[in-house]
Design goal:
The complex is a heterodimer of chains A (262) and B (266).
Chain A (H helix, E strand, L loop, with lengths): L1 H14 L1 H26 L4 E2 L2 E2 H14 L3 H16 L2 H6 L4 H31 L8 H32 L2 H15 L11 H7 L9 H7 L5 H32 L6
Antiparallel strand pairs in A: 1-2
Chain B lengths: L1 H19 L2 H29 L7 H20 L2 H4 L2 H7 L1 H6 L5 H8 L6 H14 L9 H32 L3 H13 L9 H8 L9 H8 L10 H25 L7
Helix pairs in contact in B: 1-7, 2-3, 2-8, 3-8, 3-9, 9-10, 9-13, 12-13
Chain lengths: 262, 266
């Protein structure tokens, strides 16, 4: 059943082709902007903080193409709209766990984004300009696993914020809070090695940094293979915590839901 | 004309009163949106703090650019964006047709009756950035520079409203506009940065076909006396004229689309 949800979300996403093209254009423009920013700030320096300009270009391309938070933003919006319209009741009557259905739908739309936009863009850019390859085969394997952790983490963050809208009844505000957290703390725009050291150490421990920073740091070989293994374990531990938080929130949420109107 | 204006004022008052019924929600929305922007601005701060500049612009200069961008956008968008972003839905569901039989300009009705005061967080953030950055910058203040700042700010807000109107108007003839809003916001994000960091083709694009370069970069660069690509000494004048010219284009385009509007359903 959850597979059907994921497939349905995938098909819904690709049905609106103009939207797919607009998203593709938007992602390409965002990559271009970030590459321009890093090229400008690097100036004549080829290596800063042990990271070359071309590594930063690779970081930007992969981070924008693979680790966007768009699907989770949509998830929070959809939950908010369901609560506002009262449609949430229809969801709760069905014989499945609502948070799991949210997860399945987001998997579908995330997959469509990665397959139709992310990977083609990466392939085109890698073919036309070249990108830095993973530091080693081991790093590539850990990166692949961390990509899954990243996708699960951004969806879990989205579900937590989505469920919080049962409490505050204003999903729009929650969406903006989530965007603020993800923009700064995920390291998707600015890697943590450019943060002030004290701030970097704190942010690296928060779950948001598994959305973009940790996978990319492993890809570029900023940590050795043992460190990459620990990073993966850290991500899985945070995911377990997030699942616990979602379960707790959901058990509290169903008990206090008030549907207005109908 | 006087009756129309008083009607618009009445609609604005009505909308504001409605929104103020949920004051706590409004304040939370302000805080949330300011927080969302702060996340992005903090990332830009980290870059400028680490590298000391971005395209030759220091942090106080970039802060002024970001403040100008978010403030002028908030003013322009409060009158247009939320009201017009669902234009394709209004066309498809036929609710726009209802407006056409009312004795009032449909654009004015839509925009004024739906004025959005949720941009308080944007305005506060913009004002804080402006208030912090302006005293730190070596601007040769005179009545003329103050006038230039105010007029270019007004022009930028008008430019925002004009472009949003043009994007929404495409729904009247194509039935779709949402994807164009996506593209608009992609360019809009570029307008937060000093234009010279982008290549010459994109610079030219942002000063002509998609004139979002005039939203913050051109007016702020003119104020700071920084060289502006393609415009040179005319940057200040360009920043003041861009908004009104875009508004004229938007009026023409809205009418053009309205004349060709055939509805989209039964």
């Amino acid at each position: 059943m959850f597979l059907a949800f994921a497939i349905s979300a995938f098909r819904t996403r690709i049905a609106y082709r103009s939207q797919v093209w607009a998203l593709l254009f938007g992602v390409a423009l965002e990559i271009f902007a970030r590459v321009s920013i890093w090229t400008a700030v690097y100036g004549g320096n080829s290596v800063i903080n042990g990271v070359s300009l071309w590594q930063m270009v690779t970081y930007s391309v992969l981070a924008v193409a693979l680790f966007s938070d768009w699907d989770s933003i949509e998830l929070v919006r959809d939950v908010g709209a369901s609560i506002r319209s009262g449609d949430i009741v229809n969801q709760l009557l069905k014989p499945y766990a609502y948070p799991a259905s949210l997860f399945a739908r987001t998997v579908g739309s995330k997959l469509s984004q990665v397959l139709l936009i992310g990977l083609p863009l990466i392939a085109v850019i890698a073919f036309a300009f070249g990108l830095v390859p993973p530091a080693s085969l081991g790093h590539a394997l850990f990166f692949a696993l961390l990509c899954l952790v990243s996708a699960a983490m951004i969806m879990a963050v989205g579900i937590v914020f989505g469920l919080l809208s049962f409490w505050v009844l204003d999903a729009h505000a929650l969406e903006w809070f989530m965007r603020g957290f993800v923009a700064f703390l995920s390291g998707g725009f600015v890697p943590l090695w450019f943060f002030p050291p004290a701030l970097s150490q704190i942010v690296a421990l928060l779950p948001f940094s598994w959305i973009a920073y940790h996978p990319m740091a492993v890809y570029l070989g900023q940590v050795d293979l043992a460190g990459a293994g620990l990073t993966l374990l850290g991500g899985l531990a945070w995911l377990a915590v997030m699942v616990g938080v979602i379960g707790w929130l959901w058990s509290r949420t169903t008990g206090r839901l008030v549907v207005q109107g109908g | 004309m006087r009756e129309t204006l008083s009607l618009m004022w009445f609609l604005v008052q009505l909308r504001v009163r409605t929104r103020l019924e949920y004051r706590a929600g409004l304040v939370v929305a302000w805080l949330a949106q300011a927080f969302g922007y702060t996340g992005v601005f903090a990332s830009i701060w980290v870059i400028v703090a680490r590298f000391e500049h971005i395209g030759g612009w220091t942090w106080p200069e970039v802060a002024l650019l970001l403040g100008f961008h978010v403030l002028s956008y908030a003013i322009g968008a409060s009158l247009t964006f939320v009201q017009l972003r669902n234009m394709e839905d209004q066309v498809r569901q036929g609710t726009f047709d209802v407006l056409l039989v009312r004795p009032i300009n449909p654009w004015a009705y839509l925009c004024f009756s739906g004025i959005n005061i949720e941009y308080g967080g944007h305005v506060a953030l913009g004002l804080v950035l402006l208030a912090w950055s302006l005293p730190q910058l070596a601007i040769d203040w005179s009545w003329l520079t103050v006038l230039q700042l105010l007029l270019s700010f007004l022009s930028s807000a008008i430019l925002t409203g004009a472009i949003i109107t043009m994007v929404a108007a495409t729904a009247l003839i194509l039935g779709r506009s949402r994807y164009l809003f996506g593209i608009y916001f992609s360019f809009w994000e570029l307008a937060r940065y000093p234009l010279p960091i982008f290549g010459a083709p994109l610079q030219a694009l942002l000063l002509t076909v998609v004139p979002l370069g005039f939203m913050a970069y051109v007016p702020v660069a003119a104020l700071l006396g920084k060289p502006v690509p393609f415009l040179g000494d005319y940057a200040g004048l360009g920043a003041i004229l861009a908004g009104p010219l875009a508004a004229l284009a938007a009026i023409w385009f809205w009418r053009f689309c309205l004349q060709r509007y055939q509805g989209a359903g039964g």
